[in-house]
Amino acid sequence: MSKVLVILSTGFEEVEAVSIIDILRRAQVDVTISTINEKTTKGAHNILIEADEKLEDISNLEDFDMVVLPGGAENTFNLAKSELVKKTLQKMKSSNKYVAAICAAPYALHEAKVLNKRYTCYPSFEEKIDPATYISDEKVVTDGKVITSQGPATAMQFALELVKTIKGEEVYKEVKNGLLVSSF
User: Fold this and answer.
1) CA–CA separation, 125 vs 76, rounded Å?
2) Where are the domains of the chain?
3) The DJ-1/PfpI domain covers which part of the protein (predicted)?
4) For residue range 132-184, what is the model confidence (pLDDT) as tens digits?
5) Quick check: helix, strand or coil at residue 160?
């Protein structure tokens, strides 16, 4: 079974986090929600998510196929300055695993030096990353094993792309059809 690690901190964007977790689980992906805060973490709009584990307690990082960071400005800056998050992202990338982020969170990938050249993000955050390689007209950008997306409105498309990446086209179509998605 495919395994994905989702990392949250205070101020995460709830629409993105829940879309990622829900859609991956619909595809029978084993999702572990982790946090760099207390296990009950408050999102940007005061919604609480109970993490499965604190990131510092995860000892089996090699078992994960992918790590995903939801956005939210406060969350992004928390993740970007966390040495543990940086090391986790670097270990995943050096192990040839998938690294993904949405909204402002590609900035955390940039700070960890795991963001590939082509990326997208929440408009304006490219100024903090690299405006020259920012792709503004694609909702989801895949560059090697790094996947990025723009924001809350693209969360479902992003999560479905993650499904396609780790579970294949057939499972992607099943989940997409089950969700009644027809626009992408």
Assistant:
1) 11
2) 3-178
3) 3-164
4) 999 999 999 999 999 999 999 999 999 999 999 999 999 999 999 999 999 88
5) helix
Indicate yes or no: pTM above 0.90: yes
What is the DSSP annotation of 85-97? HHHHHHHHHHTT-
- Tally the residues of the chain: 184
Cα(166)–Cα(29) distance, integer angstroms: 9
- On whether the CB atoms of residues 44 and 13 are closer than 8 A, the answer is yes
48, 40 Cβ separation under 8 angstroms: yes
CB 41 within 8 A of CB 10: yes
d(CA 120, CA 173): 24
Helix, coil or strand: residue 48: strand
- Positions marked active-site: 103
CATH number for domain 3-178, candidates 3.50.50.60, 3.30.310.50, 3.40.50.2000, 3.40.50.880: 3.40.50.880
